[in-house]
Each structure stands twice: as structure tokens, then as C-alpha cells.
Structure prediction request, 110 residues.
Amino acid sequence: MRDDRERLLDILEAIEKIEERTMGDKELFQRDEMVQVWVLYHVQIIGEAAGRISESLRNRYRHVPWPDVVAMRNLIAHHYFGVDLDQIWDAVTNDLPTLKAWTTQMLEDV
Prediction:
């Protein structure tokens, strides 16, 4: 059974893969369907891993918006054709750097 550390590593790896592929380039993201699919897939991995983090770790890191992270995964998984790419890009550029920092900190603590 996977533990919190492995799930945090999954989150961190997915964030890094998104960073590698997008390189902060919104135009690339908007015009390249393969990049969009890549990002959406890895956002789903982040949400899936976040949803499986133990309650004890979630309670230690209450400042992390766990429900929002999981909700983004659910939005993509269940409304794929209705996904707002601007909303995804906003999350990639504004939320993932913070989540990456929190994840790195949690990895140091577990």
C-alpha cells in the first residue's frame, strides 16, 4: 500500500512534469493539444494523489486546500469536454508553485 510520502512524491513529480512541458508559455499551452492533454493528465494525478493523503497529514497541513486540489481532478475527469483551459492555466501558473512549495515542505517532515 502506498504511503503519504509516495503520494507526495507523485504530486511533486506531476508538478515538475507540467513545468517541464509548459515552460510558463501560455501560448504554447493554448495552441498545442498534446501539451493540454499532458497538463490535464498530470493535474488529475495531483488530485488523485491528494485525495489519498492520510487524514492525519491533512490535519497537520490544514492550510493546504486539499478539497480544491481534489475538485480540480474531478472537474477534469468528469467534465473533460467542458474544461475551461484558462482556468487550468490559472491553476498551473498561480496555484501549482505554492502547492509545490508545500509539498516539498511536507516531504521534509514525513
Notes: The chain has a mean pLDDT of 94.
